Amino acid sequence: MNDFDFSRRDVLKQGGVIALGLVAPPWLAAIAKADVLKVAAGGKVDPDNVLVVCQLSGGNDGLNTVVPYANKKYYQLRPTLGIPEAQVLKINEQLGLHPAMKGLHDLYREKKVAIVQGVGYPQPNRSHFKSMEIWQSASPDGKLRYGWIGRYFDGAAARNPLNPVVAIGLSTEKPRALNADVASIPCFASLTDIQSMVGDPDAERMLRQIQGMEAGQNTDTRVVQMANKTALDAMASLRDKLGAFTAKQTYGNDRFGQGFKQIAQLVATSPQTRVIYFSAGGFDTHARQADSHKNLLQGFSDAMLAFQREMEALGKDKKVTTLVFSEFGRRSYENASAGTDHGAAAPMMLVGGNVKGGIHGPIPDLDNLIDGDLKFAIDFRQVYATTVENWMGGDSAQVLGQKFQTIDVF
Prior knowledge:
Number of domains: 1
CATH topology: Alkaline Phosphatase, subunit A
Low-confidence stretches: 1-43, 210-228
Helix content: 25-40%
Shape: globular
Strand content: 5-15%
CATH class: Alpha Beta
Mean pLDDT: 83
Number of helices: 12
Order of helices and strands: HEEHEEHEHHEEHHHHEHEEEEHH
């Protein structure tokens, strides 16, 4: 089953012809008979757990995010970009957060932020496209098809029928992480797209008419039509509920603020949704990094604090975990343009009321670099395996193609 981007505009442009439903987009053709994914594999975790994946696109500078302020080598490598010790938001005697991350620092002190240091993979690739493909497929050698979240839901679909909105992407382009063989995961630039897609009476009427145009055809056709109707009903129900939620927190007008506001809206109104994937770019800071990186980190940090407080107000703070990653870190040293170039290992974060807050993994070794890059100490698939098994209740070996040692972060 091929992925197919779908929008109301596409339907109207095509004159409403979708080949009688048989060439409808995969998410619309999903056969969904259950309201929720009822049972987590092995019954080890709460089946109501929600995973938010936050992708920092462009290669976030990990050394200026989690700052090794006690290491003199850091300031030698970054004479102008190094964050002065007096400004660092210290979390222990060696590490601290960028001064723009006051919101995340508050959450860290509440033990709601787990920072996993030195995350990467063997033979790292410095290409944005290739490295992001590796992270999203969880397959450095390219042998595994589809995305890691897509494969998780393929396995889940084999056990229970999936609701059409069990997972949702908020991104201008569908991330490879959501691509699947059987499971169909919709992706929207914003929640407004859901409301406009199903909210336009003429477009929705046309879609529903398409499903019934050849109801007298063979059984396979009728099955697809019924599946499409189920998906449309699910999207229409979600649209109606989205409008009923009013955020209690104040969110910024930047990409992170508006993104996490919409994620909060989904968590609050769509109990069927188990995974929400969100991406924000701008982290490719080759030149004049100081100000742009500061603004990005502040937007992310403020949004995370507002979102966590929103979850607390909803009584869902222990049911939602946010996993934060970027396709690679930056070089250990600054360049001649007051920026940093593509690197390798960097920290990941897990944020939520059920994480084991603190530092996990070794402090970056700035005296043992590879071509100016930090060596990785923890394979990112270990973090994925931990998330799949201990938060989502899945079989990590099935999802990742092999078994990886988990990390004690939940």
